[in-house]
Amino acid sequence: VGIGGVDLKLKKINQLIEDIRFHNQGYGFLLDNQQKVVQLSNKTGHKLCITDEGDCSKRGKEGLDALEKQMPDTTGFVELNQAMKNTKSGNQIVTLKGKEYYVTYQRLELDKPMLDWYVGILIPTSMIDEPVADAVLTTTLAVGAILLIIMVMIVIASQMITKPMIELTATMHD
Asked: What pTM did the predictor assign?
């Protein structure tokens, strides 16, 4: 019963990690204290060994850095592992199958029960960068329109001020 209970809890944890998304995009992950994958979203299409059993008994559990060997156009996971070793939380940029992702991670530490895991999410950079670029473009266009309106108002105001002076000067010459 004890082993079955642990297995059920791990399945529930795995489902929670699978469900970690940001606006219905991205991939969640959970690593153990040695930065070996406990769960990485199956939506990534990875074939990492997350256990020491079966076909994985020869390779053993793998870390996220193994993705670089397994998937084409995948980089930055070795650096991510190093950053996670050095800091309890942070952000990195990685490339998974040619697509850039922001990775944000947090170390989970407890004394009782002993726990030292990492949880994180990969979020497509386009989800962050595109809204920022749109906001910059909108703001730039708004500022340009305001400056144009101000310039037109200055021209009109200066004509209103100088017109009587020009008329007065013309009258004085006559």
From this structure: 0.66
